[in-house]
């Protein structure tokens, strides 16, 4: 008699191979593009969370705050160089009246405050994700990431990496127009 | 002519690998010595022809023969010689040829130095190596031929990705492949043992040097890659939990587990089925990494150009090699006899604990790496798993493993004495407590996690040192006795102590550098100063410099400690016209305790320059730890028992300490 348990590794490898085969077939010629990173969260409500403000600031961020209107949620940290790269674009968006919320990922309060003091503060509210737990719920991959959340609190778009004027022109602006017209 | 010779040599190598895979296996089955001995010359010829092909490819690169498509795509006449050569493995086809060369090299070494193996075992091991070789040579020849010609040939090549034009990266792949491919030896030995239906301490001893070579090389390879990421990507980080980094880390975790479980098998003749399974899976993890990087299922800075046809071929190879091995395991594993019994509190028990944690962390990293693919395949949505997941899952798994390490090393075989072991580690425990309290007091953030990690680092370093001192008889024995023990202590004990100590060094480096890193980002004009980590950094200015195949903006920063000028750091932003891309070259001033790390950013039109200056305390310890760890592996490799003690049953059956196999 064979012991069943010795077949377990084989079964797992077989299952993984099937997964790869499906995947290879999907990305085959004419298949789907895997170079962009949409989120599993698209069109789903934002995860439940309630974050305290960064020490020294007044307004924290919780999921309820995201239901008051169309907004961007930007996940950033003072130690993240690309966050600095995209910061002027966030400032410009804020000046045009776009509501931007921040999730400050695993940062030291003093560093985060210095960042905002030096580079400007485009955020209406910022939640301090000191443990990184909320970022896991949002499925954060790299920093920065920016989500477009509609007035019902649903995530409509996710952008990984620093935003640029090109991304704003070709993606965010058309999408925001479309959503707010409805 | 040269590329055609290379192409032909690959074809010949394929023929020899098929012969090496088939004939000795049949010979071992029929117990025909003549057919079994066929393995050695075929392994030799396979190696010679793969080497010939490799040399031909190097010549094509060095000569900048742009009629060869691969050279045209990856080289350039202006590239320095070392990067012309390293460009050979800076692409999919060439690196695959290097992969095969190393595989053939291992086959050659078993053939040349495997005289102490029973002939049937050696024949079977070489056969399995030959079959793996045949699979990958066919893959190279039919989907990834590096010798394809271009007509008409371009006048100039398009160059190598500038990120790869770097000394650290030149040697990263060869070490990595020595590690990946080195695990094929443990795999082949495991399959051969399953075919023979016999796994015993002698088997474990034969496999050990090969596993050590693979593990040591992989350690160096991963460390080189992470070092490269540290100074070349210019982000001040050194590990990003990138899927491809994980792909190299997965076999390392299993290889580490294998090194430990094979010890139990060697000393106590037990844990057979598990050790065999680990031998198969460690190479399986290497194959998985090869598949992930080369099939196009992952997108990453590391991955090669995607080609679904290659992906299908590699998936088939993965399924045949790993699936075949595991099928054999499933059928034969239960026939392996259970060996010596032991109490849960014992060296065996501790090593099993080690294996449990390593295997679990393997599963966690594997899940985190494959989960996005899983979702994507079934859901058409894409999710990614990044550092937060791995930090939340991998780190907690490492904590008990690291705490248990010095205790386990103190346990006796069969039945250990936990309270005895603990009482002999009292001093280490007290020292770690002191370290924890001190770091809590000194750290303004009062981070318990950081202080605890430092405590663990101290625990590992001091506990390992205490254990080592006790082994050589300090402080109880006389000086002469201590010296005698010091000299006679097996190299494997030296190796284990070194590697465990290195782990402590590394944990300290990782903790301190990630918690107490200081960063200053600002616009600087010539003459501006920044104070950081006790240094004063003076920005002198920036100007243009020219390299062999790039132009660069170079910043000049004088570094002072107090009023003493220590050095001038010259970070660069390079731009490579041939490849139409640019790189950041961080400038680093290092002493043993910390790095001062400067990156030059963009100019702001008003005479200022964006600069990023990091003070990275204890970061050098990460690499020192990795080097020490590899040194521990190398020390263990020189252990006498691996050379002299290996049973020579086949040659001198009457002297054998191990029972007959047939």
Description:
- The complex is a heterodimer of chains A (182) and B (662).
- Chain A has two domains: 1-35; 50-181, Glutaredoxin.
- Chain A has helices at 8-26, 81-95, 109-119, 133-138, 165-181, and strands spanning 50-51, 61-62, 71-76, 100-105, 125-129, 145-149, 155-160.
- Chain A has 182 residues and is an alpha/beta fold.
- Chain A has five helices and seven strands.
- Chain B is of the alpha+beta class and 662 residues long.
- Chain B has four domains: 1-160, no CATH class; 179-336 and 347-384, no CATH class; 391-516, no CATH class; 518-620, no CATH class.
- Chain B has helices spanning 2-30, 33-37, 39-62, 69-74, 81-86, 92-113, 119-143, 167-196, 201-232, 243-268, 272-295, 308-332, 347-379, 387-410, 418-424, 426-442, 448-471, 479-488, 491-515, 619-637, 640-643; strands at 518-524, 529-532, 535-546, 551-561, 564-569, 572-576, 581-585, 587-590, 594-603, 609-617.
- In chain B, strands 2, 3, 4, 5, 6 and 7 form a six-stranded antiparallel beta sheet that branches. A four-stranded antiparallel beta sheet of chain B has the order 1-10-9-8, with helices on one face.
- In chain B, α3 packs antiparallel against α6 (92-113), α7 crosses α8 (167-196) and α8 runs antiparallel to α9.
- The two termini of chain B are 51 Å apart.
- The relative contact order of chain B is 0.08.
- The interface between A and B is large, with 46 and 54 residues.
Key features of this structure:
heterodimer; A: 182 residues; Glutaredoxin; 2 domains; 5 helices; globular; B: 662 residues; 4 domains; 4-stranded antiparallel sheet; 21 helices; 11% strand
Question: What fraction of the residues of chain A are assigned to beta strands by DSSP?
Answer: 15-25%
How many domains of chain B? The number is 4
Structural class of the helix and strand makeup of chain B? alpha+beta
CATH top level label of the largest domain in chain A: Alpha Beta
Q: What share of residues are in beta strands of chain B?
A: 5-15%
Q: Helix coverage percent of residues of chain B?
A: 55-70%
User: Helix coverage percent of residues of chain A?
Assistant: 25-40%
């Amino acid at each position: 008699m064979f012991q069943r348990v010795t077949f377990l590794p084989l079964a797992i490898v077989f299952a993984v191979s099937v997964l790869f085969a499906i995947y290879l077939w999907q990305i085959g010629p004419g298949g789907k593009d895997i170079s962009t990173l949409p989120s599993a969260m698209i069109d789903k409500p934002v995860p439940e969370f309630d974050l305290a403000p960064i020490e020294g600031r007044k307004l924290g961020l919780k999921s309820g705050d995201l239901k008051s209107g169309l907004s961007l949620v930007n996940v950033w940290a003072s130690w993240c160089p690309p966050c600095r790269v995209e910061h002027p674009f966030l400032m410009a968006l804020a000046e045009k009246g776009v509501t931007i919320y921040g999730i400050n990922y695993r940062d030291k309060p003093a560093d985060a405050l210095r960042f905002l003091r030096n580079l400007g503060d485009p955020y209406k509210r910022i939640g301090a994700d000191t443990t990184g737990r909320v970022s896991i719920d949002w499925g954060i991959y790299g920093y920065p990431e920016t989500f477009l959340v509609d007035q019902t609190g649903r995530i409509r778009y996710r952008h990984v990496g620093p935003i640029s004027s090109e991304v704003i022109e070709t993606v965010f602006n058309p999408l925001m127009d479309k959503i707010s017209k409805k | 002519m040269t590329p055609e010779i290379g192409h032909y040599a690959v074809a010949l190598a394929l023929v020899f690998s098929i012969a090496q895979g088939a004939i000795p296996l049949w010979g071992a089955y029929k117990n025909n010595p003549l057919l079994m001995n066929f393995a050695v010359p075929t392994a030799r010829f396979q190696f010679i022809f793969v080497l010939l092909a490799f040399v031909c490819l190097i010549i094509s690169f060095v000569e900048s023969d742009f009629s060869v498509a691969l050279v045209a795509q990856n080289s350039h006449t202006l590239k320095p010689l070392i990067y012309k050569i390293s460009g050979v493995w800076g692409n999919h086809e060439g690196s695959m040829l290097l992969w095969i060369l190393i595989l053939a090299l291992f086959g050659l070494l078993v053939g040349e130095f495997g005289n102490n193996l029973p002939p049937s075992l050696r024949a079977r091991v070489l056969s399995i190596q030959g079959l793996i070789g045949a699979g990958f040579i066919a893959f190279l020849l039919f989907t990834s031929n590096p010798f394809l010609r271009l007509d008409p040939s371009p006048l100039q090549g398009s160059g190598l990705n500038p990120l790869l034009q770097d000394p650290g990266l030149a040697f990263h792949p060869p070490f990595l492949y020595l590690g990946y491919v080195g695990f094929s030896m443990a795999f082949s030995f495991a399959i051969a043992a399953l075919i023979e239906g016999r796994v015993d301490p002698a088997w474990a001893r034969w496999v050990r040097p090969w596993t050590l070579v693979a593990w040591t090389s992989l350690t160096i390879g991963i460390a080189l890659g992470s070092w490269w990421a540290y100074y070349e990507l210019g982000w001040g980080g050194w590990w990003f939990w990138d899927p491809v980094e994980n792909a190299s880390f997965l076999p390392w975790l299993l290889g580490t587990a294998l090194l430990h479980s094979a010890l139990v098998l060697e000393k106590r003749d037990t844990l057979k089925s598990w050790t065999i399974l680990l031998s198969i899976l460690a190479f399986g993890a290497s194959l998985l990494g090869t598949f992930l990087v080369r099939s196009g299922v992952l997108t990453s800075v590391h991955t090669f150009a995607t080609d679904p046809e290659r992906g299908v071929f590699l998936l088939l190879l993965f399924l045949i090699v790993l699936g075949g091995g595991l099928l054999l395991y499933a059928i034969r594993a239960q026939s392996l006899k259970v060996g010596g019994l032991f109490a849960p509190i014992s060296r065996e028990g501790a090593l099993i604990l080690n294996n449990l944690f390593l295997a679990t962390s393997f599963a966690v990293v594997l899940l985190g790496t494959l989960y996005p693919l899983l979702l994507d395949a079934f859901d058409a949505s894409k999710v990614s798993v990044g550092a937060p997941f791995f930090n939340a899952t991998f780190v907690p798994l490492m904590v008990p493993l690291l705490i248990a390490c010095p205790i386990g090393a103190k346990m006796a075989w069969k039945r250990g004495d936990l309270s005895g072991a603990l009482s002999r580690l009292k001093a280490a425990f007290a020292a770690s407590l002191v370290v924890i309290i001190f770091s809590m007091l000194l750290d303004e953030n009062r981070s318990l996690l950081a202080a605890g990690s430092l405590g663990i680092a101290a625990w590992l370093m001091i506990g390992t040192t205490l254990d080592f001192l006790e082994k050589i008889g300090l402080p109880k024995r006389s000086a002469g006795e201590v010296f005698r023990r010091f000299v006679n202590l097996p190299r494997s004990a030296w190796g284990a102590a070194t590697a465990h100590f290195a782990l402590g060094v590394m944990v300290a480096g990782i903790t301190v550098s990630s918690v107490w890193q200081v960063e200053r980002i600002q616009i600087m004009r010539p003459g501006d100063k920044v104070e950081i980590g006790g240094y004063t950094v003076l920005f002198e200015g920036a100007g243009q410099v020219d390299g062999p195949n790039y132009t660069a903006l170079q910043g000049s920063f004088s570094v002072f400690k107090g009023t003493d000028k220590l050095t001038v750091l010259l970070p660069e932003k390079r731009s490579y016209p041939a490849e139409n891309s640019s790189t950041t070259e961080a400038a680093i001033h290092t002493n043993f305790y910390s790095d001062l790390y400067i990156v030059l950013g963009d100019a702001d039109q008003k005479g200022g320059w964006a600069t990023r200056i990091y003070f990275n305390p204890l970061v050098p310890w990460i690499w020192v730890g990795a080097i020490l760890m590899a040194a521990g592996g190398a020390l263990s490799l020189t252990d006498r028992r691996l050379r002299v003690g290996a049973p020579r049953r086949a040659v001198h059956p009457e002297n054998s300490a191990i029972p007959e196999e047939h």
